[in-house]
Write a structure and sequence with these properties.
A hairpin with a 4-residue loop joins strand 3 (33-40) and strand 4 (45-52). The protein is built from two helices and four strands; from the N terminus they run ββββαα. The protein has a two-stranded antiparallel sheet with strand order 1-2. Helix content is 27%, strand content 36%. Helix 1 (53-62) crosses helix 2 (64-74). It has helices at residues 53-62, 64-74, and strands spanning 13-18, 24-29, 33-40, 45-52. It comes from Auritidibacter ignavus. Keywords: Ribonucleoprotein, Ribosomal protein. Pfam families: Ribosomal_L28.
């Protein structure tokens, strides 16, 4: 599963592991992606989304219908 949120578009960031001796090695900061299923009344069916925890808060605030309409307008296949 790709580490990208379908709602916010959040993706992985990069940085360094820093040891006690201060040596640096590359690492990835993945967003907290969850697979969530929502019932969308306007479509009359369930929709499964890969969303970050911030994306879940956006859905709670705006409503699933508004978020799904924005995704459809962007051309995301649901």
């Amino acid at each position: 599963m790709a580490a990208h949120c379908q709602v916010t578009g959040a993706g992985p960031g990069t940085g360094y592991h820093v040891s006690h001796s201060h040596r640096r090695t590359k690492r990835r900061f993945n967003p907290n992606i969850q697979k969530k299923t929502y019932f969308v009344p306007s479509l009359g069916r369930k929709v499964t989304l890969n969303v970050s925890t911030k994306g879940i808060k956006v859905i709670d605030a705006r409503g699933i219908d508004a978020v799904v309409n924005d995704l459809i307008a962007k051309g995301v296949k649901l």
